[in-house]
Amino acid sequence: MTNNILVFIPTYNEKNNVERLLRQILSLNVIGMDVLFIDDNSPDGTGEVIDALSHKHPGVFALHRKGKLGIGSAHKKGIEWAYKRSYKILITMDSDMTHSPSYIPKLIKKSKEADLVIASRFLSKRSMVGWNYLRTLMSRLSHLMSKSVLGLNYDVSNAYRLYNLQKINSKIFDLVQSDSYSFFYESLYILKQNGVMIVEIPVTLFSRKYGSSKMRLSDIYLHFRNLFILIFRNVFKPAEIKLNA
């Protein structure tokens, strides 16, 4: 039997989280689901851990890249890997335990209604438990700007998503330029511009317990710079936004 669902998890210095996360995913006993880790040459030994997990568990795969090439580029690689192996459903999530695997069955159920399902922090009041003030502020500011400037009333920066690959043209992802955190809102905007049906489910995200955040000040700068570049492309270079524009 060929599995149809892939959970993709990019990693960088998450040695203390990946095994715990995988254990929670496997405990769901979702039929026909594989897991893919892609590690960016983590100096803490995460690569060795995911190799061991892939050898121990059938349906768990580990890929390695030469260095820290960007969270967006990791997602592009995971998406490409899923399409090439004919998975029907792709679920993407973070490796730091902020995304609870318990929502995976809900994402799968909701996928019957749409092409893309987003796990949203903005559908309930208390949805970011233990987050510090700065991180909460940045998330809400990004949400506000994307809503007002791009017309995206979704959780644009959350990586916890389900893509219904059967319904999404793989070439749409070739239009996404960002290799950084900007990938998340850029991909969402381009998918919507190409007619992809998007829905959300409410989730609660927890602060990480092990390790530290990978986001840097330069990532925040790129996030907002790329937002305005995306607006420019949409107005002056629509062929970069829409297929067959």
Automatic annotation (TrEMBL):
GO terms for molecular function: dolichyl-phosphate beta-D-mannosyltransferase activity. This is Glycosyltransferase 2-like domain-containing protein. It comes from the Bacteria. GO terms for cellular component: membrane. Residues 7-147 form the Glycosyltransferase 2-like domain. SUPFAM superfamilies: Nucleotide-diphospho-sugar transferases. InterPro entries: DPM1-like (IPR039528), Glyco_trans_2-like (IPR001173), Nucleotide-diphossugar_trans (IPR029044). Signal peptide: none annotated.
